[in-house]
Write a structure and sequence with these properties.
Porin; 11% helix; mainly beta; 1 helix; eight-stranded antiparallel beta barrel; 63% strand; 9 strands
């Protein structure tokens, strides 16, 4: 009986690296929609993700927010996630990354014609939390809440998306 347990233990030792290495080096694409609190508008975009290791994932994204009251915005983020599996199909992950955005205001689309039009570029940082759920083979849904530290335009952004990985 002892030999059986030792053989089972050795069997698991040999196959644990293969079980854990299921995501390392994989790449995926997806779409997302969200809401920005400072811009006070909804937006949509695309994102990619690359698993550097089984738990560390890099996620660049681009989001365009609809113009509202003459003010519009687009942003690009370069985030890193550390994946904490909580079940077979769900994971939590903290978000940290860099942010770049372009904010613009078009005075001709607002009722107050005395204002001038302007365009501003902002560099910032992201911190947040996300959750992902595997809904089918190689298909994931994700929900993220992050705070963007942007000079004069800091905001909370909520987004939900779906992605496919290869």
């Amino acid at each position: 009986m002892k030999r059986v347990f030792i053989l089972i233990f050795l069997f698991f030792l040999f196959f644990i690296p293969k079980i854990q290495a299921q995501f390392e080096g994989t790449f995926g694409l997806g779409v997302h929609a969200g809401y920005g609190a400072e811009i006070n508008s909804i937006g949509g975009g695309i994102h990619a993700h690359y698993y550097y290791t089984n738990n560390i994932r890099f996620t660049p994204s681009f989001t365009y927010f609809l113009e509202r009251k003459g003010e519009g915005m687009w942003m690009t983020d370069a985030d890193a996630h550390y994946i904490f599996p909580v079940s077979y199909s769900a994971s939590l992950y903290p978000i940290a990354g860099l942010h770049y955005s372009q904010w613009k205001y078009n005075a001709s689309k607002d009722s107050d014609l005395a204002d001038e039009s302007w365009k501003k570029h902002r560099l910032g940082a992201n911190l947040g939390l996300g959750v992902q759920h595997d809904i089918a083979y190689r298909v994931r849904a994700n929900f993220e809440l992050k705070y963007q530290f942007i000079p004069d335009y800091s905001q909370v952004v909520f987004s939900a998306g779906i992605g496919f990985w290869f």
